[in-house]
Please model this.
Amino acid sequence: MTGTGEERLAELLSALPAPPRGWVESAQELPRLRAEADRLLARAETDTAFRQALVADLEAVLRREGIEPSRPVIERLLSSLGT
Amino acid sequence: MAEHISDEQLVASCRAGDEQAWQLLVSRYARYVYAIAAQAFRLPAYDAEDVFQDVFARVYERLGTLRDPSALRPWIAQLTRNACVDRLRTSGREQLGDQLDEAADDELERLDEAYAVRQALGRLTPECQEVLDRFFCRDESYRTIGEALSLPSGTIASRISRCLGKLRVEVEGRSEPLAASSEQVAR
Model:
C-alpha cells in the first residue's frame, strides 16, 4: 500500500467500526463456556438422572448449576446430547 | 499479551489453550468480521450478530485445521463470507445472497486495506491511537475529544494531522502485501 493519501487513510480508518461490546465479550468467553459445557457433558455420561434432566429442561439445569444459558453452551450441549 | 504478536504466534498460542490469546484474536478480528457482515453483505443487526458469533465459534473449533497460520485473515474472511451467504439463503434471500457474494470481492478488498490500516494504527503511540480512533472511528468532534482529553480544540486538530502523518508513514513503511486475498482461500 504505497502512496496512501491521508484522505484515503481517513476513509479506511472509518471503514471498520467497532461491533457492540457485548458481541465481542461473548465471543471472547467461548473457551470458558465450552469448558463448562464439557464439564456438564462429562457428568451426564455417568449420571443418568442428570442427563435426563438436561434433556428435559436444559436451561433450567444450567441456571441451577449457576451457568448462564448462553448460545454457545446450549448449542454445544444440544449437539452432544443428540436432542 | 502484546498487540504486536503475529497471527502465526497468536494461532499457536490459541492452539495451546491460551485463553488470553483467544481474547486477543477475537479483539483483533472483531471489527473485520462485523464489517464483512454489516457492510459487504448488508445484514441487519440481528443477523450480523448471529454471523459474528457463528464465525468465532467456527474459528475456535477449526483453528487446528488451519494449515497456514499466516493465512488467518483470509481464512476468517472466507468463513465470514460463507456464514453470510448461508444466513441469507436460510432466510429465503438466496438471490440477494448470490448477488452480494458476487459483488463482495471489491468490498472485501477495501476491508482488507482497512484492516491493514487498523493494524498500523495499533503500532502508533496510545495518544495517536486514541485521537484518531475518536475522530475517524467514533466520529467525535474536536470539542468532544478536547473535553475528554482536557485539551483545546486547536491542539486536537493539530494532533490529528500529526498522527495521521505518522500513520501514513507506518502504513507505507511496512507496505506489507495484503497477504493472500480472501478469494485465494478454498471455500
